[in-house]
Amino acid sequence: MIKRASLYILKMFGLTMLHLSACILIILDFFYMNINEIAAIVITVIWAILLWALSIYLGRKRKLSQKRRVGRGIYFAVIDILVILLMVVATELNMYWNSELLRNNKWTDDSGNKVVTRAEALEDYEFAMKYLKKVHPNTIDGLPSDVEKKAAEVKTYLESVDTIKGYELARELESIFALLNDGHTIVKEMYDDYHYMKHMYEHEAKGDKLVGINGITLEEFLESDKRPESYEREAYGIESITQRVATLEGLKYLGIDTNKDITYNFINVDGENVNEVVFTKDFFMKEDYLNYEELVTGDNLHEEKSKDFVSYEIDKKHSLVILTLDSCKYNDHYREVVAQMFDDVEKNGIENIAVDLRANSGGMSKVADEFINYLDVDEYRGWASELRAGWFKFKSDAKTYKNQRKGAGFKGNVYILTSVLTYSSAMDFAMFIQDNRLGKVVGESCGNMPASCGEVAHFKLPNSGLYMQISGVKWFRIDETKSGMPIIPDYECDADDAYDELIRIIEE
């Protein structure tokens, strides 16, 4: 009797696993391959119907009692319905379906130089538009009219070409995405090698400001009909164009004929126009570029590039510690450095702490929480958000968090140094401090807006291999009385002068 019961349980377990096996589609999609949402749901439904019918057939064949057949039927029907609902949630309500979230993709494809056919380009276009409509918070009711119009123009253009290079396709798709005014929603090409204009660092070292290429201003590039960059603040858009034109690949992306001589237009520190004419041969691969600039300027650029993302220095003369954070990486190393810094602050009786975020483009916002843990505050406010989940939006109200106190509780002055390159989670860091009145911001307004979109899903376009990311969450500013405003520094100055301004503030 016990043996028969054990065998029955074993059979039921096996059949249950068979009914649950449709979930393999979720595993395959998350880790290995793209699967069409409708196809995944249809396959799951068909699989459930077949197995449910099979269980009824086997029950009759084995002459099970009516009560047991009904019980088995209900049991497997419930499981199948749950599996189907799970598949609907995983495919239609999940922003990461067909994304690269858990895939081992290091984005090494030379997608910028890849040539795709008209059919392949149109397939990539449809893929990009599908997930822009499905994932982004601002497209839940359809594409805004200007975005829809641009999308139609791009499609018409792609239908007219026989082949197209990856960087050209990226430019076309980006011209659509950019109209959402969301700096986190982008299409970007990648290259195995970038070629850098060999004199660029020399001009930066002398304080020359790049203002144009071939007499075309950076603003004109930014405001062209095919808007080439996604941004929320024009200052950040200009910075993005500046970084692009430093490379041969970026010039091609912007439509510059690199087979001819190229004139870089600068303004020097005396306000004079300075032009630099270069040719294709004047663009070096990264290692050659660094070696050349080191030889000319005497600066050690290799050492600069290899420095730790988080470090701090003590200035006893000004009772100041400066924590330099170049990336918002929330890991053991960051936590150890912050803990050691606050320990040194207490031992040395330091009265001022500055966090230098001027070169920080973001990462994880928990770096700010960890820093606040060491301040003498009981609680602090977070932001409200709105999550897009397929056909639905879920609003989360702003919360007040109880501070998880660590250390002695710093009671001194806190300053945040910012630039236009302070972006995403680094901007959030500055917002946490400013909007909770925990300290002051010194420098330039950050690159993106506090009330904006983020929490991106990463995708790889199926034919070109272009990189695409789309926001799935809308964030609201902590201090909602400043909604629609950027982070405006308490002490506004050029980013390069932020340290000197900080010393002036402390001395006064």
Structure in words:
This protein has about 500 residues and is an alpha+beta fold. Helices cover about 40% and strands about 20% of the residues. It is built from 17 helices and 21 strands. It has helices at about 1-20, 25-30, 35-60, 65-90, 120-135, 145-160, 165-175, 200-205, 220, 235-245, 250-255, 285-295, 300-305, 330-345, 365-370, 425-435, 500-505; strands at about 115, 165, 185-190, 195, 210-215, 215, 260-265, 275-280, 285, 310-315, 320-325, 350-355, 380, 385-390, 390-395, 400, 415-420, 440-445, 455-460, 465-475, 490. The strands form 6 sheets. The chain has a 6-stranded mixed β-sheet, sandwiched between helices. Strands 3, 14, 15, 19 and 20 form a 5-stranded antiparallel β-sheet that branches. Strand 11 (about 320-325), helix 14 and strand 12 form a beta-alpha-beta unit. Helix 3 (about 35-60) packs antiparallel against helix 4 and helix 6 (about 145-160) packs antiparallel against helix 7 (about 165-175). The longest helix is centred in the first third of the chain and has 27 residues, at about 65-90. The protein is globular. The mean pLDDT is about 90.
Basic shape? globular
Stretches where pLDDT is under 50 for at least 5 consecutive residues are none
> What is the number of E strands?
21
Supply the helix-strand structural class.
Answer: alpha+beta
Q: Count of helices?
A: 17
Strand percentage, roughly? 15-25%
- Proportion of residues in helical segments: 40-55%
C-alpha termini separation: 90 Å
* Biggest β-sheet description: 6 strands, mixed
Side by side, the strands of the main sheet go 10-11-12-17-18-21
Give Rg in angstroms: 28 Å
What do the pLDDT scores average to? 92
